[in-house]
Write a structure and sequence with these properties.
By secondary structure, the protein is of the alpha+beta class. The protein is built from four helices and eight strands. The protein folds into two domains: 109 residues; 45 residues.
Length: 162
């Protein structure tokens, strides 16, 4: 989920990614429904038990990995971009002066699959030393208008035309 809000001289973009985690977390209960009775009775065979454990552990690890929260704040008062990104394993944060921001744009990421070449888009800030700070992960084309609106609002706020 991508949410942008403006309060006075502060513009904030919140990003929450938990849909994939919720889907993965729905798999272990399904395995419990199927294999629960044989686990309780002690009738489960070793091969089924190993498959059951793998079927529980991998979705939990995947859910753990894909859960993500980010907040990016553009403050006109301080002329500062502040960001905080975290998931359950890692945590990153930092600050950059507006003067160091060269460009804010919507970046296209290619991803090929059996259905052909697909694109997802994300918000990025490019600094004067060439460093690229991704503000969001990739999104499908459904969010392209919203991403363009957010890019335009950030550009207006920090005084950039491109």
């Amino acid at each position: 989920m991508l949410v942008a809000e403006e309060k006075g001289s502060i513009y904030r973009v919140h990003y929450k990614s938990y849909v994939i985690s919720l889907i993965l977390l729905s798999l272990p209960p399904l395995l419990l429904i199927e294999h629960g009775p044989s686990l309780i009775d002690g009738r489960i065979e070793i091969g089924e038990l190993i498959g059951f454990i793998i079927g529980i552990v991998f979705p939990l690890l995947g859910a753990y990995y894909f859960l993500e929260f980010a907040s990016f704040t553009f403050s006109r008062d301080d002329d500062l971009l502040t960001w905080r990104w975290r998931n359950l394993i890692r945590n990153k944060s930092g600050q950059v002066a507006f003067a160091r921001i060269v460009m804010v744009r919507r970046d296209a990421i290619e991803s090929g699959d059996s259905g052909g070449l697909q694109y997802s888009h994300r918000l990025v800030v490019i600094l004067d030393d060439g460093t690229m700070i991704p503000l969001t992960r990739g999104y499908s084309g459904l969010y392209s208008k919203k991403l363009d609106q957010i890019v335009d609002q950030i550009r207006d706020l920090i005084g950039h035309s491109r």
